[in-house]
Amino acid sequence: MTIYKDFTHATTHLNSLLMSQAVLMHRGTWQGIDVQRKPEMGAYELNHQLIQVKLDTNMLQHYRDDIKPNLPWADDHFAERVSGNPLNPGEEWRNWPWGKNADKFRIDPETVGDPTRALIFDHTYAQRYWPKYAGKYNHGIIDDTVVMDKHRGIYFDYGDLRDVVNELANDPTTRQAVLPMFFPEDTGLRPGRRKPCSISYHFIINAHNEFDIFYHLRSCDFVRHFADDMYLTVRLHLWVLDRLREMSIRWQHIVPGWFNCYIGNLHIFRNDRR
């Protein structure tokens, strides 16, 4: 794992690696779409990148300046993610700098069994943060006057971000506080369907009473997603820590620790490489 002094250092170094060591590959599909006849969709790739940055402050502006995400979009989109509603499609996707491209991935709601909804995405981060009632309410806005059954796994009800926070509040030293993004329904061949780029977030206190996060990414587009992915994860980490400090005196003196990230495939498309 490479330890970086800050996210600016990490971004600069990874950019250098992509320019000097990345291997050009054309994988034939992108987001489930056949791109075999689109040579511009070839990408320079680095596999198995490990990133570690010490989170020295909980001041959000520091990370805005350091990571340089797409603002104000990233902050507005984060508010949707932690709203408590499994929003789909939400609103902020339209304001993303590449929102017109994202629109191409919305699907006909009749294909998922609810013709009352507008075009939706096959998944959103808000749904994966709050999956208990995902797909059950119109546009993902929970209506407390309408009773819906929770989604269940093999034996138990689904959990969500709030359950992860509660687990940490009740058992600060737990090793089990994981928020999954990649679900069993994402497993296997799904022609024409997108799959989450994020696998999971793991929250854990280290031996120095610092609060760490491990972010597992299966794939990341360096130009369009890297900065936003890093920033939104830092925001999530600080958001969780704030909630824990509100809930438990045991968390009052816990400070941010290490940001750890594994990226299975970091890439930059041929036309984006300068």
Structural features:
274 residues; alpha/beta; Thymidylate Synthase, Chain A; 7 helices; globular
Mean pLDDT, rounded to whole units? Answer: 92
SSE class: alpha/beta
- Overall spatial form: globular
Largest sheet: 8 strands, mixed
Q: What's the CATH C level?
A: Alpha Beta
Count of beta strands? 10
**CATH topology title:** Thymidylate Synthase, Chain A
Helical element count?
7
Describe this entry's structure for a reader.
By secondary structure, this protein is α/β, with parallel strands linked by helices. The chain has a single domain (2-272), classed as Thymidylate Synthase, Chain A (2-Layer Sandwich), CATH 3.30.572. The chain is built from 7 helices and 10 strands. The chain has helices at 7-20, 60-67, 73-81, 99-103, 125-129, 161-170, 226-247; strands spanning 2-4, 23-25, 29-30, 33-34, 43-54, 178-180, 198-205, 210-217, 220-221, 255-269. Strands 1, 2, 5, 6, 7, 8, 9 and 10 form an 8-stranded mixed β-sheet that branches. Strands 3-4 form a two-stranded antiparallel sheet. The model has no long low-confidence stretch (mean pLDDT 92).
Topology readout:
Blueprint: E1 2-4, H1 7-20, E2 23-25, E3 29-30, E4 33-34, E5 43-54, H2 60-67, H3 73-81, H4 99-103, H5 125-129, H6 161-170, E6 178-180, E7 198-205, E8 210-217, E9 220-221, H7 226-247, E10 255-269
Parallel strand pairs: 1-5, 8-10, 9-10
Antiparallel strand pairs: 2-5, 3-4, 5-10, 6-7, 7-8
Brief sketch in words of this structure:
The protein has seven helices and ten strands. With 274 residues, it is an alpha/beta fold. The protein has a single domain, classed as Thymidylate Synthase, Chain A (2-Layer Sandwich), CATH 3.30.572.10.
